[in-house]
Amino acid sequence: MTFGRSSAAVVIAAAAIAALASYGIVVLTAREAARVAALAPAPPSGVPKPPDSVRRLEEPETAALPSPPPTPVSTVTADDAPENWPDGKGRDETFYFCTACHGFRIVAQQGLSRERWSEALDWMVVQHKMPALAGAERETILDYLAQTFPSRARGRAAPNPFLKP
Amino acid sequence: MSRKPERGFIELYRNDPERAEALIFGRRAGPSRRGFLKGAGLASMAAAVGGAIPFAANMPAGLVPAAFAQAASGTAPAAPKMLQMAGKVPLILLQEKPLVAETPEHLLDDEVTPTDKFFIRNNGGIPDQPADPKAWKIKVDGEVNSPLELSVGELESRFPMVTLQLQLECGGNGRNQFVPEARGNQWGNGAIGCAQWTGVRLADVLKAAGLKSSAVYTAHYAADPHLSGEARPTISRGVRLPKAMDEHTLIATRMNGEPIPLIHGAPVRLVVPGWPGSASQKWLTRIWVRDKEHDGPGMTGTSYRVARTPMIPGGKPDDANMAIMESMPVRSIVTNVKHGTELSAGTRRLDLRGAAWAGDKAVREVHVSIDYGATWQAVSLAQPKNKHAWQRWTAAVALPSAGYYEIWSRATDADGRAQPHVAGNWNPQGYGANAVSRVAVLSKA
User: Fold this and answer.
1) Is B266 in Cβ contact with A154 (below 8 Å)?
2) CA of A94 to nearest chain B CA: how many angstroms apart?
3) Do residue B371 and residue B346 come from a single domain?
4) In a domain, A72, yes or no
5) Which domain, by its residues, includes A114?
6) Which of B274, B306, B324 is the last residue of a domain?
């Protein structure tokens, strides 16, 4: 990979802007929203505020954002479909297998080597009673996970000099 | 569309930070392992963060500036998604099912964490709101002389009610600091809250049931349904008896003076302050007193366990080497300055507020640094409201010039153990990462 110096500044500036860009908003599914909205926490009560003797640098983020709508405005989460996740062989199989029990965001948060993804699948079977994966299905899912969500860390600790390949 | 170049940069940094810096910035690691930004490289990085970097010489080589770290830590979507939920300020969404959301650190600026700013951690579904909260029953059985079945109403009338300010922290708080990545929700430092909890002491209830001499451990059960739809516990953790008998361990029915909201465990939950939050079972239905270490879901294998003897980061765990995590480690955060704050031109003094806590222990001192830990200054640290409440601190730092700075904070517990510069004691599920906290600010020229 080569990076020209002149384009690098543009690239970096774009990265910095993206890193600090405004956040997306996700709305709960109708079922979840109905449950939680039914018993929304009471508004903050007479909790004592710390003395504001020191200067507040900015208003809390909440002041700048629109207040939450009284009722949910959407019935699906933004990422609740396989096509919202990185393309690759086995994506749909992986998405539907994992989301039988839990959301896909916990999967996409991870960055693991193939071996540690394999351990994660074993762990799901032992700790969470996931149906065991075997044969071609396991390979397909493992390939997608390892290729799409690999370990991103590099440095003194990763890859570790003592880890056997 | 900036997506493509952004990925290119982040990936380059992820794959080999030192090479990335050498390529992009012309930055080389010196013999002291510190980087030296010079000439065009310094100008490039300065352009990237939007200003000069006064302490560039101290910035460790290969360390991604904190201003980039948020984008670098995520996978598919670079920017965090925010959860918008009635009764809650926008929280960082980690996952929807189960619902898990983190409080941005700069929203933890209250001495007592308001309910709308309290983080959310679930392992399963959310039970239905009880029609009659006072009639909700909890059972106390196992190694006791007189098993109890108590309604919430009976609990509140039969035992003394106490109100304490108690910190509740997810066992995985700080997980995103681990290298290589540890498995689980990639929390920053915002899986913490210190609300005011009202309830009865677990010790009083256990004494009323009459503990047998064989009692050594508790096992907690709750009503949250398993995500698979099967009728089995989502999670069931417990604590050694001395922690259960600690006068700060509560069966709580009120949070910040109000009935506990459903999302936080209505109508009754445990609050086991200073230990991984999963021991503070929400929607509590049963406390089973056991004659051995509890072995429910979440107690075994690598769950809520850390390595006894240090293991190779990224290596295969030996279950026999994994010990249950008990007290949480020392940690501090800056709470009045949002990560990525631009300071108006000419700002040379920055007032800071923050919080520090250390599981079962007190915090002895907190220091802050604006030069990547080359020099530290002590802050003014308040005493906790009561044991197991976090401690607030204030400080003022001088910024010698305009430019990009990182505010680092480092707490030291009563035993003299400070937050390390890098998260250590790697374990597969990522518990106990408590490196110094970092907030990027830009003082405009």
Assistant:
1) no
2) 15
3) yes
4) no
5) 82-148
6) B324
Question: How far apart (Å, rounded) are the C-alpha atoms in residues B187 and B94?
Answer: 8
Q: Which of A117, A120, A103, A102 is nearest to A148 (CA)?
A: A117
Q: Which of A65, A105, A130, A149 would you mutate first to test chain B, the one with the most B CBs within 10 A?
A: A105
Does B179 contact A85 at a Cβ distance shorter than 8 Å? Answer: no
* Structural domain containing residue B344: 331-443
Cβ density class A147-165: b for 16+ within 10 Å, e for less: ebbbbbbbbebbeeeeeee
Q: Do both B284 and B153 map to the same domain?
A: yes
Write the residue in B79, B111, B337 that is nearest to A23 by C-beta: B79
Between chains, do B106 and A157 touch, taking CB under 8 Å as contact?
no
Query: Where would I find the beta strands (DSSP E) of B175-310?
Result: 192-201, 217-222, 250-255, 258-259, 269-271, 284-290, 305-307
Positions in chain A whose pLDDT score sits under 70: 1-79, 165
Worst-scoring range by mean pLDDT, B14-18, B62-66, B197-201?
B14-18
> Is the same domain home to B239 and B259?
yes
Pairing of strands B380-381, B391-398: antiparallel
A68 interface with B at CB cutoff 8 Å: yes
Question: Are B312 and B339 found together in one domain?
Answer: no
Q: What is the pTM of this model?
A: 0.79
Chain B residues in contact with A111 by the CB 8 A cut-off are 75, 180-181
**CB-CB under 8 Å, A127 with B337:** no
The CATH number of whichever domain residue A98 belongs to comes to 1.10.760.10
B394/B305 same-domain check: no
Residues A56 and A95 in one domain: no
Query: Do residue A33 and residue B75 have CB atoms under 8 angstroms apart?
Result: no
Alpha helices by DSSP H, B237-304: 241-244
Residue B203 has pLDDT above 80, yes or no: yes
What pLDDT, in 10s, does the model give residues A19-33? 333 333 344 444 444
